Each structure stands twice: as C-alpha cells, then as structure tokens.
Amino acid sequence: MITTWLGGLVRRRSGRLGGAALGVAIAVALLALLGSFLAASKATMTSRATRTIAVDWQVEVQPGADPQAVLATTAAAPGVLRALPVGVAHVPSLSATAGGSTQTTGNGVVLGLPDSYRAAFPGELRTLSGAGSGILLAQQTAANLHAAPGSRVVVQRPGLPPVTETVAGVVDLPQADSLFQKVGAPPQSQPVAPPDNVLLLPAAEFHRLFDPLAAARPDLVTTQVHVARSHALPADPAAAYTAVTGAAHNLEATLTGTGVVGDNLGAALDAARGDALYAQVLFLFLGLPGAVLAGLLTAAVTGAGLTRRRREQALMRTRGGTDRLVLRLAAVEAAIVGIVGGVVGLGAAALIGRLAFGSLRLGGTGAATAWWLGAAFVAGLLVAAGTVLLPVRRDLREATIVGTRTSVRRHGAPRWARYGLDVVLVAVALGVFWASSRSQYTLVLAPEGVPTISVNYWAFLGPACLWLGAGLLTWRLTDLLLDRGRPVVAAALRPVAGPLSGTVAATLSRQRRLVARAVVLLALAVSFAASTATFNSTYQQQAEADARLTNGADVTVTEAPGTHAGPAAGAALASVPGVRRVEPLQHRFAYVGSDLQDLYGVRPQTVAGATSLQDAYFQGGTAAQLMDVLARRPDAILVSAETVKDFQLRPGDLLRLRIGTTTVPFHYAGIAKEFPTAPKDSFFIANSDYVARATHDDSVGAFLVDTGGTNVAAVADRIRQTVGTSATVTDLVTTRAAVGSSLTSVDLAGLTRIELGFALLLAAASGGLVLALGLTERRRMFALAAALGANRRQLGGFVVGEAVVTVGLGLVLGAVSSWALSTMLVKILTGVFDPPPAHLAVPWAYLAAVVAVTVAAIAGVVAAVVRAAHRPAIAVLRES
Amino acid sequence: MSVFRCEDLSRTYGSGRGTVVAVHGATCQVPPAARIALVGPSGSGKSTMLHLMAGLEQPTAGTRSWPALGGDVTREPWLVGVVFQAPSLLLPLDVVENVELPLLLAGTGRAEARARAHAALDELDLADLAPALPEELSGGQAQRVAVARMLAGRPRLILADEPTGQLDHETGAHVLDVMFHTADRLGAAVVVSTHDPAVADLLAERWTMADGRLTAGGKVGAR
Question: What is the pLDDT of residue A461?
C-alpha cells in the first residue's frame, strides 16, 4: 500500500513534493552555512585574540620571593613556551636638556629587558626612531622631554645619586596598558592610563642601576616574568578563556604565593568571548528568521495542496482507510520531503561554501562543521514533519470527512485575530524597543574579569514580536482589504482584468486566506531581505566611520615626536599627485587640573572638508553648528562628557588648560564624544589658530589628506616617498582592514553574503513558488472558465490580478515592516556598532534587486500559468 | 443549414499500446431546433462526442463545423451552451456570479449579465440560492445552477452531459422542461447524453454510441 501510494505521489504530485523539498533544502542550506559560519567566526575570534597579545602572562614576583625560583616554576608550567625576567623600577622623575631648556617629568617607570626579549615578544616594542636596542625611550616620554636618539636623560633614584643615560632609540609601546598593569588587581582598580614616562634599559644596565635601590627600597623595584604560552586552545573563545584562566590559576597555586599572574591572554579572550556572544546573537537575530521563513515557505507549499490532500484522505477514509494508515502515509511523505530536502540542502551548502568561501568549513573546525551539518539536517526533518505530518494529524483529530471536502468556506476571524494578537505583539515589540532605547541597555553583558557572560535575551522579544506581529497584521490587513475593500480591489484591478475585474476581485475575496498567506510570506521575505541588507549597510557605514575616526582621513600624515612642522608644511603634501585637500590637525597635551588629556586644534571652517564629522560625534549641537561656534568664538572648546561631569561644567564656563608651560583660558561650548584620530575617552577640540597664538607654537601634529576616496593606497605611497622618515603615513585602506579584523564585534561580511543571497532566493521563492502552487491548485477553475468561453486575455486577467494583489501588498507591507524591523535591529544591536549610527544606511541597489527578482519570478509564474491555461480545458478538467 | 456537422470525426488519447479511441470516424449533423438523445453505455464516448461538438476538444482526425453558428464556435463560444456531467461551478464565485460569468466573458455589460443571471435562476426556482457558494449546495442544486448558467447564455446549440444524473425524477423533469422550453424560445438545438431511457424518450431523435462509434440517428459512423 505504502509503495503504491509513494509511486503515485512521485508520479502525480511531483510538483508539490519538489516544492516542499525545496523549502526544506533552503532551510537546511541556510542553517548549515550560518552554523558553519558561526563556528568559523568563533575560531577566528579566538585566533585573532591570541595573535593580538604580545605577552600572554605577566607573573609578578612577590616581595621576599626568589625571582629565579618563580622564573623556573613558571617556565616549567604546562603550555609555557618562553619565560623571561623583566625588571621594573619606579623612579621619581626623568629629565633631559634640549635647546637650552631642561624638561623634567613626573613619576616614571624603568624596565630592564633581557637581550632576547624583543625576539621573544616581538609585539611589545615598535621602534620609531634610532636603534632598536640599548637605552630606549617611550614615544610620549620623548615628546615630554623633547628628547631624541642621542639625547641624554637623567634618571632620579630615591636615596641614590641620579644617573645619566644616552638614548639610543625611541619606541612605541603598543600594549602599554597591559604592560604597566597593576598585576593581580581587579579591572576597576587598574590605572586609568599607562605611565607617560618610561625608560627601557638592557637587563645588565638595569641591574647595575637598580639592584642597589632594590636593596634599599624593595617597594620600588620588582621583577616580573613575562610568558609566551602555547596558543593551541579550544576554538570557542569562551572555552579558550576557561582553559587559559584555569591554567593561570593553576600556576598561581603552584607558585604558592610567590608570584601573581597578570593574565593578558585571558583578558583578550574575555573580550573575544563577548564578541563571540555577539556573533551568536547576530546569528539568532539575522539568521534564524531566514530559516523560519524557509520553514514557512515549506508550510505554504504543502498547504497549497491542502484541499486536494484532504479530499484524498477523505476518500481513503470512506474506503476504509484507518487514521493510522493515513498518518503512516503522511509520515512517509514527510520523510521523503525531509530527506530529499536535507540532502539537496547540504549539497547546496557545500557548493555555496566552496564557491563563496573556498570550503564548507569556512575556516572552522571539522567537528564543528559536522555538528552543524547534522543539526541542519535534523532541522530539515523537523520542518518536513511540522509542515506535512502535523496538518494531517490535526485534520484527523478535528475534521469530518464532509468537512475535508470543502475548500472555499465562509470563515470567521481566526482566534488570534479575534483576540488581537497581532496588535498585542506589535505593542510588546514597541515596548521592548522603548526599553532598549534607554541608555542603560546592554545586549551582551560581559563584565571584565568575571567568568560568566550573559546575553540579555529579553531583547530578542522585540524583533521576534515585531516580525510575528507584522506577519499577522499583514494577514489581517490583506484579509480586510480583500473582504471589505472588494470594490477598491475591483477598481484597482480594472487595468489588468477589464470588465472582469469585479469577478476577479470576488474570486480573490473568497480565497482571501490563500492570497493572504502568499502576501504574508512575501512580505516576511521582503522584510527579512530588506532589514538584513539595511542592517548590513548600516554596519558597513559605521565600520567605515570607525576606520575614518581611527585614521582621521583618507591619508593621515603624523609628524614624528620632536619634529616641528607648521601648517605651511601642508603645501608640500598638497602638491603630491592625487591629493585633493590637506588639512592641518594640531595635537597637544593639556592638563585640566591634574588630568592630562589630548587637545586637538582644528580650523573649524575647513576641517570637515578633509575628514568626516558626523553629528553623532557631538552633543549640544550638530557638527556644523559646533564648528561654527569654534570659528565665531576662537576660545570656545569642546570637551568630553566625562570632563563635563567631573568638573561640573555648564555652557560658557571658563576652563583653564595648561598646555606645555602656558595656561590658556577656554570657554566650554559643547561635548565631543568622538573625533577623528582622537582617543575614545577624554580629549579637547579647540580652534587651532587660538591655540597657536596662545602658546606661541603653531606646530601641527598631523595632516589630514583628502584624496576624494580614490587611489588612497597609491597616494599614501607617494606621500611616504615625499615625507621620508620625518612622519608616519597611514591610509584608510590599511586602517579599514585593521579595524575590521580587530572586529567591532563580528566581521559581518560572511554572514551577510550568505544571508543576502538566501534572502533574495526566499523573496523570489515566496513570491513565485507559492503563487505558482496556488494557481496550479486552481487550474481546474481556470479550465472551467476557459470551457465557459474565457480567452487567453481573460484568463490572464484572473492570474495577473492575483499576482498584482500578492506582489503589491507583499512589497508594500514588507517594506513598511522591514523599515520598522531595521530600526529596531539597529537599536537593539547597537553594541555591535562603533560609533553608533545617526541614521540607517539603505542599500537601494540590493532592495531594487529584491523587487526585480521577486517581480521577475512572479512574472515568470504568471506567463507559465497563462500558457498552461491555454491547454484544452477538457484535458485539464479530466486530469483534475 | 445545420447547427453542427462533422465528417469522419475521431478523437484518440495516448499513443502506442495505450491508445484509447474515444470517438471513431463519426459523421453526423445537427439541424436547427433538433432534439437529440445521445445514448450508450459508460465509456462509449458520449462525453467526448459532446465535447467535440462543443469545440472543447480538438479532433485527431476528420472535420467539423457549425454552419448555422458562423463556422467556428471557438471564437464565439457562448453560441454553444454546455452542461457538464461533473461539478462545473467555479468554487470561489457564488451562484449568481457563476451564472453571469459566461455572459461577462462574452462581453455583456455587468448590469445586464446580472439581470439575465437572476432571470435564469428564477426560471429554475433557484433565486434563493443566488448568494450561496457552490460548496454550500447539494449535488442536484449545483447541477441546476449549471443548467441555469448555460441557459442564461442564450445558446443556439445546447449540449448537456447527463444533466439529470444527480437529480431526483421530479426535479430532473423540471430541469429538462425548462431547458426544452428555453431551447424552443431560442430556436436552439439540443443534444442530451443520457443513460436514462425516460429522458431519452423526451427527445425526438436518438443517437447511439458504442465503443466510440456513432451508430444511429445520424449517418452511421463506421465505414
């Protein structure tokens, strides 16, 4: 019996089976690809996090402990590849004499590095000028002391005579924050900023100078053991974090109080696991709706044959078929759909993975990929069971044989509509949106140093409710329009159906549930495609803004410490081919109270011409308004929100800053939250002419170069040749890659490439496939109309009329819900944006492609159905 | 001038060993105002013959024409009214919309079509069912609506395939009565396929089909 049924299904219902299997295949392929992408993303995050760390652990030898014993124990710990001792001494000041004046710093730190340190930890030091070994001065210290290679620096030692060292080179310490951490202290007790004054000595010289100090003042001299560990860690950042912190705790236990571990690697993985959670959240927010949509598509495909299926079942039951037999046959059909769809989906995923990413593993591990493939296949089977088997089971429970023979019924409103579930869902979505718009909202909670991280899963409620609510509301509106608005529909269809428009409107009205289902599916598909694309575009827009904020402009020329270049030096840059505009950006350090902050001097009238100033970077006015304030009132200053709070500033308040040796009065005019090249937290923006006049120093820290966005890398190369070693040249292309790889959170390129492709496919399938199956199920109606005298044009009126209603309502309602969903997604996922977006970026080209592909798919279906309707009517009637 | 005529008309389905010859070399003509009963056992080709006469099937051999109707009814299908054996109402349309549909397809204005539809329903005592949906009708009611729809088109050739098969005797007699009465009024020819001898007796002429061959009434089909 089952074999006979199967044969009949394959021969007679191949379209329905194929359509359902296609829906399952889309869901399986999407889940398999997204899952593999997620696994690969996590592995990449772990790998990136470990790569960014120069020194994995800093083990601080505790007072009274033997440094050699701590070194030996640490070196012998499992997973430790290299361990080197580093001396740390705290000194009251450093000083240097340059150009007849002597500069003296505040407290400083002197490090003693073994000869092999640089080779063992290559990321810790970066030579800016002079030699790479010997006596080295940190960049900011060199700037503070006006020192350069060859300068002589005096080092004060409490209770001992000062010593003088000759500087061999100036270095940058890219990881100064972790290098000068307070080992063992919780994050909130860590220094706000690394020391400004740092001198690096060879280990032998360090011991010569500070061993006597260590004997007299052991509190000022300590030893750290810097460690490079094996980076063979679990792919998941959370698991890697657990492994590394566990090992650090184990070492501390082994050291029995003689050493405390500063776990830089654990801290990096701590941040990465937060990013991994964001990746997971993005997967859920952006990927899951696609899979759900594919499931709905499958349900719609199987649902399109529901009437026929019910009749077949009714016939079988009247001929003695038991419920059990009917269920078994449905189970077999579900199994066929699930297995075929699953295999096709996995094949498609493998093909797409290979074509788009080189392999299905997408850089992840084999085990993780296999897990996701298996999970996707099982999900496909569940979709098939849910869409094929469940409706049959429900029918058997609820329906009578006579009832199953009807297809066009006078329906009351469904229960959810009577209770206004759609309105409730939209209201809940708006409530969640309101809650997440408040400033305290955080989606991913990953407190530094705390082992557990969590996601605010309540936030999912917003988009989920909006998506469901919009779907149901679309259903209600379509139902309402086709029922109560029949005259309107008839009038709208007159151009395509002519005098038959009333009849076409009547058929649509009586089958409005079928039509509403197609409209809902299309609207959800359009909403999914458009919101994903808009989210992606906004993300790209902000990633670009982040890169611009970091680099400052297309090309940025930063003067080396100690050099003096006035604004006129920009003329040489302006003459480089490809340069459109050069804008000087003054950089100073200024004290507000005892707090040292960066001060950027700008030419307010012209600065926006070379860099991007978004309104979102400022508070208290738009970018243009605040630049106008700086222009009109040269002593105006923009400060950070933190400074406003710390000093209780109100607009117009006097603010005295110490710049070098000069105290300069400013008036507070607004808040700057972000500024190109500026650090994230505390900085000032002022009028450069005013700063130059007040300090009698017009030197420029950097030049922002606008190339018009073209040939950025080539222009940067030309500028490098022009400026030589006197300045550092950075360009947007390189910075963009660096910012992207340091991951604002997750590199969305892979995710969106998968998603946008599938979204396009789902939109086309939702529009085309569902309409095609719906129309195919009604071919008997078209055949009867043809038998009653309908010509091709008139039959076309029926088909085109339905297509117009489906496409029109689907696209319009889909566009509205996608706008709402995009706004909500961007707000809820605001944590992945840096800086937060001021407005959505709408990918018009992609949206046009979605509309074009959907309309093309539906036009193809309409043409095929009209052509098929031209077959002899009696042949169709006989078949059906 | 006959309403329909055919010569050596055949209709074959399938090919090779699975070939089925539904109508084989039929030659006949239907005069204006003719009353013909097409009788024969199930599977003898009666329905196919009616479909060929209605222009709904393409013959695989032979010629056919509708001389009194302008030659080719496929261009003016409303000149031939057909009542199908199987349920033939459009499910998404209510009864009155079903009845007016052929008129609208023929280019009749909506108001006139609606009026003629109501008139046809009145004639068959179906006025109360005008707003009903086909799935709310019994089989017999649906068949009467199909007859009303056919009559509303004012055809010149009426082809009815077992029109009373699903009706009780009394209702069937009423439907036939209305159909013949309307045909008389329109001067239309009527061909009714039926198993029912009582129905066949109501018609003036009797054609018989057996194994796809038209053997009586018209000229003998077999050669």
Answer: 81
- B50 and A CB contact within 8 Å: no
Of A57-66, A281-290, A344-353, least confident by mean pLDDT is A281-290
Do A790 and B133 lie within an 8 Å CB cutoff?
no
* CA separation for the pair B193, B9 (Å, rounded): 18
Q: Does B111 touch chain A (CB under 8 A)?
A: no
Q: Do β-strands B189-194 and B157-161 pair in parallel, antiparallel, or remain unpaired?
A: parallel
C-alpha R_g of chain A: 35
- The reply to whether B159 touches chain A by the CB within 8 Å rule is no
CB atoms within 10 A of CB A667: 16
ipTM of the prediction: 0.88
Structure confidence at residue A443 as a pLDDT band (50, 70, 90): low
Q: Which positions ≥6 away from B86 have C-beta within 8 Å? A: A877
Q: Whole-angstrom Cα distance, residue A672 to residue A686?
A: 11
Contacts of B56 in chain A (CB under 8 A): 787, 872-874
At residue A242's C-alpha, the angle toward residues A238 and A244, to 5°, is: 115
Task: Provide the 8-state DSSP code for B213.
Answer: E
Work out whether the CA dihedral B13, B19, B20, B24 comes out positive or negative. positive
Q: What pLDDT score was predicted for residue A539?
A: 80
pLDDT above 70 as % of chain A: 89
Q: Are A847 and A760 in contact (CB under 8 A)?
A: no
B154: contact with A, CB 8 A cutoff: no
Q: Do B133 and A506 touch (CB under 8 A)?
A: no
In chain A, residues with a C-beta closer than 8 Å to the C-beta of B91 are 407-408, 510, 781
Cα–Cα dist A738/A734, whole Å: 6
Q: What burial class does residue B33 get, using C-beta atoms within 10 Å of its C-beta: 0-12 exposed, 13-18 middle, 19+ buried?
A: middle
B219 confidence band (pLDDT: 50, 70, 90):
very low
pLDDT of residue B11: 93
Q: Give the burial class of A264: count Cβ atoms within 10 A of its Cβ; 0-12 exposed, 13-18 middle, 19 or more buried.
A: buried
Structure token digits, residue B133: 């949906």
- What phi and psi, each to the nearest 5 degrees, are found at residue A261? -95, 125
Is the Cβ–Cβ distance between A782 and B93 less than 8 Å?
A: no
Chain-wide mean pLDDT for chain A? 84
Q: Which residue of A has its CA nearest to B109?
A: A499
**Which of A409, A410, A506 comes nearest B93 by C-beta?**
A506
Which residue in this structure is represented by tokens 């390129």?
A: A749
What is the separation of C-alpha A403 from the centre of its chain, rounded to a whole number of angstroms?
51
Distance between the two ends of chain B, CA-based, in angstroms?
Answer: 25
Residues A125, A148: Cα–Cα separation, whole Å? 17
* pTM for this entry: 0.75
Strand partners, A43: none
Largest Cα–Cα separation, chain B: 53
Q: How confident is the model at residue A201 (pLDDT cuts 50, 70, 90)?
A: very high
> Does the beta carbon of B135 lie under 8 angstroms from any beta carbon of chain A?
yes
Taking contacts as CB-CB distances below 8 angstroms, the residues of chain B near A799 are none
Residue B14, chain A, CB below 8 Å: the answer is no
Please report the pLDDT score of residue B221 as a whole number: 34
Is A873 exposed, middle or buried, given 0-12, 13-18 or 19+ CB atoms closer than 10 A?
buried
Q: What is the pLDDT of residues B129-144, one digit of tens each?
A: 999 999 888 888 888 8
**Helices and strands (DSSP H and E) totals, chain B:** 6, 9
pLDDT score at A743 = 40
Predicted confidence (pLDDT) at residue A447 exceeds the cutoff of 60? no
Residue type, A854: T
What pLDDT does A453 receive?
Answer: 55
Q: Is B170 on the interface with A (CB under 8 A)?
A: no
CA–CA distances in Å: residue A601 to residues A278, A561, A584, A724, A842: 37, 17, 9, 25, 34
Mean pLDDT of chain B: 87
